[in-house]
Amino acid sequence: MPRNYWMLVITPENFAVTRSLGYTVQGFTALSRKKAERMEAGDRLLYYLSGAQQFAATATVASTIFEEHTPLWRYHKEGEDFAYRIQIKPEVVLDDPASFLDAREIGPRMEYVKRWVPETWPLAFVGELHLIPRKDFSLVEEEMRKVANRRRRSQAAV
Predict the structure, then answer these.
(1) What is the CATH number of domain 5-157?
(2) Which of 9, 54, 93, 113 could pair with 121 in a Cys bridge, judged by C-beta atoms 3.0 to 4.6 Å apart?
């Protein structure tokens, strides 16, 4: 059973980089290094796309942190190369942006956002890496599974 459930706030462009890498590796900025160091194999990771306010995928952490400076992801701060990385294994992936979950619909139901005033709950998703309750992770992942299963059924019918 996973020890920790994480939510990664990532730009759609950087999510596309992770997708192009086959959801095998994820990098974090220096600001998130301490949190990333707490990640262990078996922990779970939820992808939240900033700006778009969407949930797009879940993955399982497959390694502890390692340092690698090959530039892959982009950051607005010069010199940031997302050097603190983990290996991951994809679990539920919604590849079509039209099928991504709208966080404005599911976010208010999350326990994690209850610390914020209802009108400002999106502030819960500021920052790169967040520990979230298992219940919240399961809620979002289950909704993602429903979308993925519907898409598979509709594609099979064609």
Answers:
(1) 3.10.590.10
(2) 113
